[in-house]
């Protein structure tokens, strides 16, 4: 919510970009009311063709981890969503390279953190699964005996 509020204030007070102000303010209000926030689809923005693919990949990667990130890393998910919207909005304007780069880097940083959270969760899950298998083995019984030919058998 804070990220969208900050972006709305900046777009209104500094840039006088009322369309972006409205978009960010509406998302801030939704977040304040506990609603799920999604990034705008890249098709919403009029982005130069040579910049569109990277934004689409970013959007697709974010949506691929969205549900898990809601549970495991909501802070960085919110940062990634607002940063992707910022990146696409700035890329559409296509003149403030410092803002484009900042929004892009903030998005990539947040995604890196989300992937780290997902990897830790996967490692914990794998370890728990492995521990359950070990416990199953500990509950088993082996009987060692010799047959009539004096060969050792395990039953």
SSE topology sketch:
Layout: H1 2-15, H2 18-32, H3 49-72, H4 74-93, H5 97-138, E1 144-146, E2 152-154
Antiparallel strand pairs: 1-2
Helix pairs in contact: 1-2, 3-4, 3-5, 4-5
In short:
This protein is mainly alpha-helical. It has 5 helices and 2 strands.
Description of the molecule:
With 155 residues, this protein is mainly α. The chain has one domain. Helix content is 74%, strand content 4%. It has five helices and two strands. It has a two-stranded antiparallel sheet with strand order 1-2. A hairpin with a 5-residue loop joins strand 1 (144-146) and strand 2. Helix 1 (2-15) runs antiparallel to helix 2 (18-32). It is elongated and about 95 Å long.
Structural class by sheet pairing and helices: mainly alpha
Number of helices: 5
Quick check: average pLDDT?
89
Give the termini distance in whole angstroms.
63 Å
- Domain count, please report it: 1
- Rounded to an integer in angstroms, the radius of gyration calculated over CA atoms is 25 Å
* Sheet of most strands: 2 strands, antiparallel
Helix content: over 70%
Uncertain regions spanning at least 5 consecutive residues: none
Strand content: under 5%
Shape: elongated
- How do the strands of the widest beta sheet line up side by side? 1-2
The number of E-state strands comes to 2
Provide the succession of SSEs.
HHHHHEE
């Amino acid at each position: 919510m804070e990220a969208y509020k900050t972006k709305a204030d900046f777009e209104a007070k500094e840039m006088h970009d009322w369309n972006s102000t409205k978009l960010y303010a509406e998302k801030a209000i939704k977040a304040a009311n506990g609603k799920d926030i999604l990034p705008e689809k890249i098709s919403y923005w009029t982005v130069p063709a040579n910049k569109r693919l990277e934004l689409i990949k970013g959007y697709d990667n974010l949506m691929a981890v969205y549900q898990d990130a809601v549970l495991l890393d909501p802070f960085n998910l919110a940062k990634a969503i607002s940063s992707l919207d910022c990146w696409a909005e700035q890329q559409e304007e296509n003149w403030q390279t410092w803002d484009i780069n900042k929004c892009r880097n903030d998005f990539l940083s947040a995604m890196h953190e989300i992937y780290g959270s997902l990897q830790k969760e996967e490692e914990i899950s794998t370890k728990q699964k492995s521990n359950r298998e070990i416990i199953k083995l500990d509950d088993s019984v082996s009987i060692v005996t010799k047959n009539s030919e004096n060969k050792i058998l395990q039953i």
